[in-house]
């Protein structure tokens, strides 16, 4: 039985209890959300870790992408990235490896992980073909589904599958005036397969086969946005919306089959369209959890795209996004380093928290209020404990010349809080 099937049958599972405890809610609230499909709990039956939920009424979650490339692959480095991401607060990690011993890398990541793990199975399928000296378009239907089942069998909790790339949506794309075409790796691979083979996308045509695998292992489907905009100039064009309509239909079909599902969302979106985009997805996809990359509201900040993403992510989370895929300073430039991974997670955590305040998520406002009280008291220990990145906050404080005084070096003896306190408590200033 999947989490969704159990929820529909009125059962509160151990995973639901773990989610409820983490969120400060009761099990029945989680069960009800899972039953409607508004909450998913990505947890493969073969993967043991403390479950986290994604969806309506829950804290906005963060995913960190790691993984090798054909030009750079080191297992130890990827495991360090995994640890750094989780320590910084990531709720999930996706292994997007395409270089080195991909099978071993995924196996070790699953064994090592304390959080849910996601993949894009077609990456491995295509990588195998490349090693054989063949083209990605030579993939057979069985090879595509066999890889998905292999990954489900060893414990992958959620998989990105580009089912919305269909002959219809590709035709819409061909007749559009997009500036950047397709920027999704999986989306471009499936598009090429369709055009070269002159056949329908197997993930769409044989969707029932995909659902059978997902249901067997309780793998959550993350319906990929293969036609997401790669520039704000392409945001919300016909191709993107056409795919989103297809994903909404597929999400409904998955729920009826007892399979948990979430929807992946756009990359580059102008600031004034982000809120509407979140609401459109919820409406078209039956309030399925929304998993967004960024979004990025400008295209001209390479090296700082984690900041751009945090700006867009905060607005997205405030308007209904449930799951933010981090963006690192290396986005659009190179494979992220270990330090980049940490910076990306922290930036997304900030965005998620800002969104949670706006959504009224339990504990979000209270955490800010506690921080303000701690600052008023010069309670540095509590300030560090409440901060999103206590390691950096503590390091900066300890490097200050005034680290042993209840002031910060910026204000020193002109501390506004102390000046205010003197002004309010000095009897001579309050004589009538």
TrEMBL record:
Protein's name in the database: Phosphomethylpyrimidine synthase
Gene that this sequence comes from: thiC
Cofactor notes: Binds 1 [4Fe-4S] cluster per subunit. The cluster is coordinated with 3 cysteines and an exchangeable S-adenosyl-L-methionine.
Cofactor(s) this protein cannot do without: [4Fe-4S] cluster
First-tier enzyme category under EC: lyase
Residues reported in the UniProt entry to bind [4Fe-4S] cluster: 408, 411, 415
Entry function: Catalyzes the synthesis of the hydroxymethylpyrimidine phosphate (HMP-P) moiety of thiamine from aminoimidazole ribotide (AIR) in a radical S-adenosyl-L-methionine (SAM)-dependent reaction.
Cross-referenced Gene3D superfamilies: 6.10.250.620, Radical SAM ThiC family, central domain
Entry EC number(s): 4.1.99.17
Gene Ontology MF: a single term: phosphomethylpyrimidine synthase activity
Subunit structure: Homodimer.
Pathway(s) it belongs to: Cofactor biosynthesis; thiamine diphosphate biosynthesis
Family named by the database record: Belongs to the ThiC family. 5-hydroxybenzimidazole synthase subfamily.
The organism of origin for this protein: uncultured Desulfobacterium sp
């Amino acid at each position: 039985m999947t989490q969704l099937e159990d929820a529909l049958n009125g059962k509160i599972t151990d995973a639901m209890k773990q989610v409820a405890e983490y969120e400060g809610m009761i099990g029945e609230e989680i069960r009800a959300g899972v039953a409607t499909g508004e909450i998913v709990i990505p947890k493969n039956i073969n993967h043991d870790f403390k479950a986290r939920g994604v969806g309506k009424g829950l804290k906005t979650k963060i995913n960190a992408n790691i993984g090798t490339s054909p030009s750079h692959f080191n297992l130890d480095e990827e495991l360090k990235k995994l640890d750094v991401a989780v320590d910084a607060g990531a709720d999930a990690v996706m292994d997007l490896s395409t270089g080195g011993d991909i099978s071993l890398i995924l196996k070790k990541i699953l064994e090592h992980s304390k959080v849910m793990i996601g993949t894009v199975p077609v990456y491995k399928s295509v990588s195998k073909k490349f090693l054989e000296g063949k083209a990605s378009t030579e993939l057979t239907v069985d090879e595509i589904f066999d890889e998905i089942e292999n990954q489900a069998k060893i414990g992958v909790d959620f998989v990105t599958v580009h089912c919305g790339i269909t002959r219809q949506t590709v035709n819409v794309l061909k007749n559009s005036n997009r500036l950047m075409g397709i920027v999704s790796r999986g989306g471009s691979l499936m598009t090429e397969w369709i055009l070269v083979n002159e056949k329908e996308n197997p993930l769409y045509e044989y969707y029932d086969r995909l659902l059978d695998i997902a249901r067997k292992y309780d793998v959550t489907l993350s319906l990929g946005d293969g036609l997401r905009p790669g520039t704000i100039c392409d945001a919300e064009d016909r191709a993107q919306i056409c795919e989103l309509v297809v994903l909404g239909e597929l999400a409904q079909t998955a729920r009826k089959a007892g399979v948990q599902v979430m929807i992946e969302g756009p990359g580059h979106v102008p600031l004034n369209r982000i809120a509407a985009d979140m609401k459109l997805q919820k409406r078209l996809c039956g309030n399925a959890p929304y998993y967004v990359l960024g979004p990025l509201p400008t295209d001209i900040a390479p090296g700082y795209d984690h900041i751009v993403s945090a700006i867009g992510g905060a607005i997205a989370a405030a308007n209904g996004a449930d799951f933010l895929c981090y963006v690192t300073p290396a986005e659009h430039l190179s494979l992220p380093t270990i330090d980049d991974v940490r910076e990306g997670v922290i930036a997304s955590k900030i965005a998620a928290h800002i969104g949670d305040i706006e959504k009224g998520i339990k504990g979000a406002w209270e955490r800010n209020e506690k921080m303000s009280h701690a600052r008023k008291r010069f309670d540095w220990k509590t300030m560090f404990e409440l901060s999103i990145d206590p390691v950096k906050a503590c390091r900066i404080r300890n490097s200050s010349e005034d680290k042993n005084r209840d002031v910060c070096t910026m204000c020193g003896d002109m501390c506004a809080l102390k000046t205010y306190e003197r002004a309010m408590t000095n009897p001579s200033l309050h004589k009538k």
